[in-house]
């Protein structure tokens, strides 16, 4: 976005010129303005069709769906891995759809820990999504190791972002064996430099793994070219595959043949899987990290949702995402950034450099929790992250520039009328 104009007419002009505006017609958005796609993407006609097709196949084929469905369910995880590979810049053999994100962290971290000695350390950061730490700590405990002695967390200087140079320094200072970082910090939206961190890790004989939950489907990657060792992600955010949808993983081909820490029959080599041998023979590629039978109804919507993503292309998605987030940042500065009747104004907690942010913007305010509730009541769905962040995600496939303008305008009116003050600041539950 080259120019910024704060009036709504400008937003309408941007929408008229938007080459991806047509994509919104493929979605059913569950609110007037839905800016929470970094938590759960909405239903698309493509995802719904694929799920309906799978249900029809179950009805008509029963058990024969494993071989006769279109596509056959037996290789569904591999098929979806092939479709996802271009989004993460990987070889098809390096990607598979399987399990849940936390399970994939368990199996991959556990697998690589098995190849190390009892003094091994893993480097994370203090701003990670908590499940990453839960899983890693559990893997240390399973080996009789104290997680406090083996898990090293890089501290944030500002409470929002992680300095990559501090990550590199920590690799030197703590003699770590595995680096595991998010591609995008879930609270602030900072995009880390995966290529740089991987190169720095390998120069120190450190394995490099990443959690791509907040970047897949909205940021392009080149995992194979960067020689990333492993990665995990969910598919219910920017991939719009539905609540609890099946997750995915990547394992660099250099690690093919390594015995998975969590072995299960669906990771067995396909040719002999139904021989029912008591000895596990892992698949020769990333498919080895599948564990239980693929849940077809959690995978089929992803197959459908990928049709639109393939049609548009990740580069076009990323371009619009950056334009939308830049526009949102500019509007917040213009409409919400000044002191308001003696109260604190809003602050952008996301890096302003477009190349350093993912697909959402963190807007900070002392009353963020109550503002988030007031926005939702006004028809703008956002989420709150403690202690003071409202996350707004203008997901590029279904969000318009006018949506962004209207959302900021409603925030402006909430502050003007103090409408947020009637909400409880101590609520609990899902956000």
From TrEMBL:
The record's listing under InterPro entries reads:
Kynureninase (IPR010111), PyrdxlP-dep_Trfase (IPR015424), PyrdxlP-dep_Trfase_major (IPR015421), PyrdxlP-dep_Trfase_small (IPR015422)
Q: Which GO terms describe its molecular function?
A: kynureninase activity; pyridoxal phosphate binding
- BP-aspect Gene Ontology terms: anthranilate metabolic process; L-kynurenine catabolic process; L-tryptophan catabolic process to kynurenine; NAD+ biosynthetic process
Cite the EC number.
3.7.1.3
**Keywords of this protein's UniProt record, alphabetized?**
Hydrolase, Pyridine nucleotide biosynthesis, Pyridoxal phosphate
Kindly report, in one word, the top-level EC class recorded for this enzyme. Answer: hydrolase
Q: Which reaction(s) does the protein catalyse, per the Swiss-Prot or TrEMBL entry?
A: 3-hydroxy-L-kynurenine + H2O = 3-hydroxyanthranilate + L-alanine + H(+); L-kynurenine + H2O = anthranilate + L-alanine + H(+)
- Is Hydrolase one of the keywords UniProt gives this record? yes
Q: Which domain of life is it from?
A: Archaea
- Output the Pfam families linked to this UniProt entry: KYNU_C
Cofactor(s), by name:
pyridoxal 5'-phosphate
GO (cellular component) term, any one: cytoplasm
Q: In which pathway does it act?
A: Cofactor biosynthesis; NAD(+) biosynthesis; quinolinate from L-kynurenine: step 2/3; Amino-acid degradation; L-kynurenine degradation; L-alanine and anthranilate from L-kynurenine: step 1/1
PANTHER family linked:
KYNURENINASE (PTHR14084:SF0)
Q: What does this protein do?
A: Catalyzes the cleavage of L-kynurenine (L-Kyn) and L-3-hydroxykynurenine (L-3OHKyn) into anthranilic acid (AA) and 3-hydroxyanthranilic acid (3-OHAA), respectively.
Listed under subunit, the entry gives: Homodimer.
The family this protein is said to belong to? Belongs to the kynureninase family.
Name under which the protein is recorded = Kynureninase
């Amino acid at each position: 976005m080259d120019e910024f104009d704060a009036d709504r007419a400008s937003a309408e002009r941007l929408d008229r010129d938007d080459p991806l505006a047509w994509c919104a017609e493929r979605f059913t958005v569950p609110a007037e303005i839905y800016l929470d796609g970094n938590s759960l993407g909405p239903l698309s006609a493509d995802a719904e069709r694929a799920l309906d097709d799978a249900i029809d196949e179950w009805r008509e084929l029963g058990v024969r769906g494993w071989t006769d469905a279109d596509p056959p369910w037996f290789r569904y995880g591999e098929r979806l891995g092939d479709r996802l590979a271009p989004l993460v810049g990987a070889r098809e053999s390096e990607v598979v759809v399987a399990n849940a994100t936390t399970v994939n962290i368990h199996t991959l971290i556990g697998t690589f820990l098995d190849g190390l000695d009892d003094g091994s350390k893993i480097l994370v950061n203090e701003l990670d999504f908590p499940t990453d730490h839960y899983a890693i700590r559990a893997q240390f405990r399973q080996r009789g190791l104290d997680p406090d002695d083996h898990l090293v967390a890089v501290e944030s200087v500002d409470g929002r972002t992680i300095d990559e140079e501090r990550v590199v320094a920590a690799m030197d200072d703590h003699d770590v064996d595995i680096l595991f970082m998010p591609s995008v910090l879930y609270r602030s939206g900072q995009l880390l430099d995966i290529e740089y961190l991987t190169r720095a890790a390998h120069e120190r004989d450190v394995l490099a793994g990443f959690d791509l939950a907040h970047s897949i489907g909205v940021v392009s990657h080149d995992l194979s070219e960067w020689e990333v060792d492993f990665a995990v992600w969910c598919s219910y955010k920017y991939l719009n595959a539905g609540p609890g949808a099946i997750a995915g993983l990547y394992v660099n081909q250099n690690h093919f043949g390594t015995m998975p820490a969590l072995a299960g029959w669906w990771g067995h080599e396909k040719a002999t899987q139904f021989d029912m041998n008591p000895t596990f023979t892992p698949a020769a590629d990333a498919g080895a990290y599948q564990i239980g039978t693929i849940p077809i109804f959690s995978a089929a919507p992803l197959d459908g949702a990928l049709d639109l993503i393939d049609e548009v292309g990740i580069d076009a998605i990323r371009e619009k995402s950056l334009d939308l987030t830049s526009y949102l940042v500019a509007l917040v500065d213009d409409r919400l950034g000044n002191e308001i009747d003696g109260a604190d104004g809003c602050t952008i907690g996301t890096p302003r450099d477009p190349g350093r942010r993912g697909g959402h913007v963190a807007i900070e305010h002392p009353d963020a929790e109550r503002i988030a509730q007031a926005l939702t009541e006004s028809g703008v769905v956002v989420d709150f992250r403690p202690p003071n962040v409202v996350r707004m995600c203008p997901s590029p496939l279904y969000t318009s520039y006018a949506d962004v303008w209207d959302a900021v305008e409603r925030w402006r009116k909430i502050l003007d009328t103090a409408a947020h003050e009637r909400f409880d600041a101590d609520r609990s539950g899902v956000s």
